[in-house]
Records
---
Amino acid sequence: MREKILTLTTTILILGFQICVSQEITFEINNLDLVNREVMSIDDPKGTLVLGSEKGPGLAIIKNVSFEKGTIELELKGDTLTRFFPGFAFNIQNDSTYEAIYFRPRNFRAADKIRREHSVQYISHPKYTWRYLRANNEGEFESDYPLKPASDEWLGVRLKIDDDRILVYDQRTGNELLSVERLTKQISDSIGLWTGNISTGKFRNLKIIK
């Protein structure tokens, strides 16, 4: 009987064990497919990638990397002088069809509570833009950033992407920032860095965990 219990316990442990594979992404110009953006610089040794600003949203699609679901860790940074809406895009089907999570750093410490509640945003282009979601689903697909970091402070964020839901966390505290239902089905395994209209972008320490 004891042998049967031990065998059963071992089987449960084996079935419950999951192997996580972590992949750190190094930014290199040759490994990026740029859409409506230019690379201003890639700084060593931190490997910080800086994207320039243009009218309309922009992408830096990462070549030779596939991702459908799992966890993304990334650091993003704003500044106090320019418009800055940095984010991360996934399920990229073409230049204008994708999902993304992005941030509005200047709203983090805004005096107006409504502006603060517009700090973290989910979108699913081309239909579900931030304007569409705010008009039709006020408060459902955006939230505040309770830690209230400075607008020019590096943000360490973690995105957990499942088949039908996305959760966004602050890396430092582990606090959940946003939890939303995905508005489209997973079709593509392409991912990339994202910046909003007339927005620059600074990124580093991208890691994929599957």
---
Amino acid sequence: MAPLRSTIGSYAYQAAGVWRVAVLASAAFLLTALSNANTDGTLDTAIAKVVRHIIKGDQCAHEYEEARRTHYFDLNNNGRKDAVVLMAIEGHGCGNNYGFHMAAFLNSGKAYSPVGHLPIGGTWDAHPDFENVAYRDGQIVLQIKVHAENDAACCPSRKGKAFYAIQGGKLVEADRKKK
């Protein structure tokens, strides 16, 4: 029987009704590289580390990368563009559940460091507008939709706003600042 090739460089053989997997060195290298991510200081590797933390322990959860949006603001008034990243995580609990998360990263000029991440919505919860993110008066402002009484899980209809800030070196949900 010919081996079946998977996407991570391993081969599976069926012998006597039992699947046997022989993992190539490339798969081991890939796993090592992923476990050491964020050593180069790029935003992509910092995001990958946060995503791994969010999905840790859930074998089915994964980021829907095409939905990810990154917005740049100077979050700590040091003249550098820091990053606010909105992402969608799907497949929680091996089901059709999804969650929206926001992470903030400060730019030191040499590397992006995560300040924190928070769940910001999902199934039967708020749906943030990934394209419409602002930074005003020290707050990250998201346009969101929340569920009205007869809305389906997928489709909240009531418009609103959510406010977040970096306080004490952490990303937190905040009350709306009055001008």
---
Amino acid sequence: MIKRNVVVYFVAAALLAFSGLPLAFAESGKDFQIGATVAAGVPHPLTFSLDTKINSSFAVDATHGYFGLTLNNVKVSTSNFEIRGRFHPFYGSFFLGAALGRHSVTASLSQDIVLTDSGVSITVPTKVGASIAALYVTPQIGWFITFGPGFTLGWDLGVVLPVSPSTTINVETGDPALNTLLPLVKQTSDYTSMEGTVQDKGNQLAKIPLPYVTVLRLGWMF
């Protein structure tokens, strides 16, 4: 019990220390400010925000992000848009926040599928894509620090909770003349494997709760 109390007191003291930074580090001295920041983190690797400080306690941010990469030959891209509210209970840099947004994840995989009938083989270049979209809510805590004339630095920590995700599967061939063969392509084990792969990659980013971490936020408030 004593050890647990020590931990609780330590965490509380740390939060108060960070949130109670001198005004030169936590506030610019202006009641209303508007600015822009860029942030790196997960699950949205790169985002850009329009940040509005209403007063020393409340702020609202609008954020958009996009990022693409390749995972095991699967092309994955993600985009998001969200509105975030921040409450600074100690009038400093520390805040309690929540965001409401929508993100989409697109995953695609290309592969040649061979169809064989009566000893005749036809190679069908096939591309399978999964588009997964979901609303999400992100409760979070963090620090949003404005230095002197306006330089801004921040970190955030929370969890992304998806709401009402939906999935769309698209299949196409590299040759429109082969589109009539798509029903046969979908019956093959290769196609089933491709569809499962792109869905798994998309689900990892759009359908399950994910940790939300902003490793670094930089910007300027005016």
---
Amino acid sequence: MDTMMDEGIVLALQPFRDSDWIIRWICHETGRMDTLARGARKTGSSFHGRLGLYNRCRISFLRSSRSELHTLKECSLIEHPSHLEKSILGLQAMAAAAGMIESLTEKNTPVPEIFESLRRLLTALKNPSPVSIEGFYTRFEVELLEQGGMAPASLPSPLISRISAPEQPSDTDNFTERLGRFTSSLMARQQLTIPESRSRFLRHLSAATKSQPQHHQKNEENEPDRSGETSSRDIGETGGNQ
């Protein structure tokens, strides 16, 4: 076994045997992987307080040549996302993001761009506003699709607007539902399953954004002619004509 060093974000933890954890990571160099932390659930373990959900850590592990389960040796905490403790919607956004990463990546395959996208989302979720969460999650999901080679060459204009101004309310009616259909159609063509965590998050996000007061209105008189651009309703269908 070779000892490896990496930086990772905890995607999930699973109890194993009497006192161990199996930790699922997305790492900068290694990609998505699982490690076994022996004795991590024991009182006084060196891992205590470091292996929380969505914690960002610096780790060393023994890489197995015989299985996909590696052995965690050391872990130092870089950042604990305490802001998620007060944001159910933020937690759901991270669960959705983790589910999408599981669906779109292979284990032990380097995906540094996806790691960085998730790290940026984790930081952006410090703003608990549903509008902001919608915008930054949309940016993450589009980046994930692009990095997986699934996004169309020309994105629908509502997506472009939302990504460029993630903290501003969308001008598109039912934007969250349309984002859901857009990604679902792309993944269906690749015979990939949408994770339930994402579907659940989008339902709650849609309800939360609809309850938000509108901070601005479009000025129809001064609205430029965009008849040649992609219609806002096409966000749910665009992607099949690549």
